[in-house]
Design brief:
Blueprint lengths: L4 H12 L3 E5 L22 H16 L5 E4 L9 H13 L3 E8 L3 H14 L3 E4 L6 H9 L6 E7 L5 H7 L1 E2 L2 E2 H11 L4 E4 L7 H11 L4 E4 L9 H8 L3 E5 L1 H4 L4 H22 L1
Parallel strand pairs: 1-2, 1-10, 2-3, 3-4, 4-5, 5-8, 8-9, 9-10
Antiparallel strand pairs: 6-7
Helix pairs in contact: 2-3, 4-5, 7-8, 8-9, 9-11
Length: 277
């Protein structure tokens, strides 16, 4: 029987002794003034090729200290199937999981079409927007593939605006994020996206962990450029956490050293709380 997505994650976590996920957000100079790919990648290159080559180099430099890579769909607009496959092949070759940050959210037929392509492109897992209300259907479709496509559900995101709908809005007098965590467990999704930034408290993370289940992956954005607190996450999130760092690594002068520093810092925190158990 093929491994589940979470089993593959746990195996890599043990093998590589890391909880670091590298966020691949390759921005072009035309998009913004800072946090952009170096101009050398654009010399006589199409923007797709430039962004792909940048991502491939980042994977090469940081893979010793990561266990997953999270390409962001909004930064890969225009990629061909072949380019997606080159990216996922490289991620796999370096012993990492690939998580496509697409925030899929649509009716069953449309989600089914999207999952067909994500499988074809070689992604191990995706992020999923639960607000259309069809977690059960999407999980069933995603888990019918071999290997399974992991479904990691947006639960309490790192941006402050997420509080409006995920915390302050309620369903039957309960915060929406708690209902989402319940559905993650009920329908067998693989994990939750939970932010590390200030508005997400240690208690929030504990509640999500206890509600969704101790075996679920918690994918944690917000550490790095957003100044989120990794200690809070590791203390409250337990073993199966995956902490994403993007801009602070990929646009640094030395991505390899920066990834190593984050890996060491996360492991030092983990060792403290592992001893406390």
């Amino acid at each position: 029987m093929a491994q589940t997505f979470v089993q593959r994650f746990e195996e890599i976590l043990e093998e590589k002794r890391s909880v670091l996920c590298i966020g691949l957000d390759p921005a072009l100079p035309a998009q913004r003034d800072k946090h952009i790919i170096p101009l050398k990648y654009l010399e006589r290159k199409h923007e797709n090729e430039a962004r792909l080559n940048f991502c491939l180099d980042i994977i090469e430099e940081t893979s010793d200290f990561c266990i997953a890579a999270k390409p962001n769909e909004q930064y890969l607009r225009g990629f061909t199937s072949e380019q997606h496959q080159k990216l996922t092949n490289s991620i796999r070759k370096h012993g990492l999981l690939s998580i496509y940050d697409c925030k899929l959210g649509d009716i069953r037929d449309t989600a089914e079409s999207a999952l067909f392509y994500y499988h074809k492109w070689g992604y191990d897992g995706i992020t999923f927007n639960p607000f259309p209300g069809n977690i059960e259907e999407v999980v069933q479709i995603a888990h019918s593939y071999n290997p399974q496509i992991g479904i990691i559900v947006l639960t309490l995101m790192s941006n402050p605006e997420a509080e409006t709908f995920m915390r302050h809005a309620t369903i039957i007098r309960r915060p929406v994020y708690l209902r989402i965590a319940e559905d993650v467990k009920k329908y067998g999704a693989d994990g939750c996206v939970v932010g590390a930034t200030g508005h997400v408290t240690e208690d929030d993370i504990k509640i999500i962990r206890n509600t969704a289940g101790k075996d679920k992956m918690l994918l944690i954005p917000g550490v790095g450029a957003q100044k989120g607190d990794p200690e809070k996450v590791i203390k409250a999130g337990g073993k199966n956490v995956l902490i994403n760092v993007g801009r602070d690594i990929i646009y640094s002068d030395d991505p390899k050293k920066k990834a190593e520093d984050y890996c060491k810092m996360f492991n030092e925190i983990r060792s403290i709380y592992e001893r406390a158990v």
